[in-house]
Fold this sequence. Notes:
The chain is an all-beta fold. The chain has a single domain (about 1-235), classed as Jelly Rolls (Sandwich). Helix content is about 0%, strand content about 55%. It contains 1 helix and 20 strands. Strand 17 (about 185-195) and strand 18 (about 200-205) form a beta hairpin. The longest helix has 4 residues, at about 135-140. It is globular.
Amino acid sequence: MIQKIPSESIYFADYGWHTGRFHFSFEDYDDPNNSHFGVLRALNDFVLQPGSGFETHPHEEMEIISYCVEGDLTHSDNVGRRNTISRGDVQYLCAGSGITHSEMNELGDCSTRFLQIWITPNERNLRPKYRSKRYSKVRRMNELQHLVSGESISGVIEIAQDANIYAGRLEKGKKLTFKTQDARQGYLVCLEGLISVDQIELQQSDALKIWGEDELIVSAVEHGHFLLVEMAAENQANS
């Protein structure tokens, strides 16, 4: 089963120095009927204005993954780590027992757009940690890029949950096939362009909830850029 979620039905807020499109309840968006999807607790599409960002703030008991769509995103935390990711790169923060960090757009003339994904971990009081990964632009085009997994896979960031995150960029007319497994579900977001997923068209910021499909065929009607979060079906997830 596939359910389309049009972009106009997804909560959007403009705070001046940044905008946020919240796919699930977050900040001033409170909807008890849309609080999570399996272990996926939040999926936020943020745009930070030049020289702005989220100043130092705390987190705990959450896996936080950020995928940069445009611009640069700089992470700093209370144990001295500092790192900047750019378009197509990913960073991972295991908040665990507690950590403070900031996420800033330090560019003076360009905005930064990134997706921030919160996943509920499979255990509490994990040791806080940070990881990041850069990806070749050549490798990303017309391929499904495996960014995050609950398994130990070379070149993929490992998290403490049975979930996977993939990104794909497609040239017009190209397509990708994603094989699914029993008792799994997925959440797919069109980040840029115009794509078709099993003949359902998605434009920028449209999303899909997916259950029990044997495979997904993602095609680029125009150029396309999307992100997929795949996980255990909700009645089996530790959510």
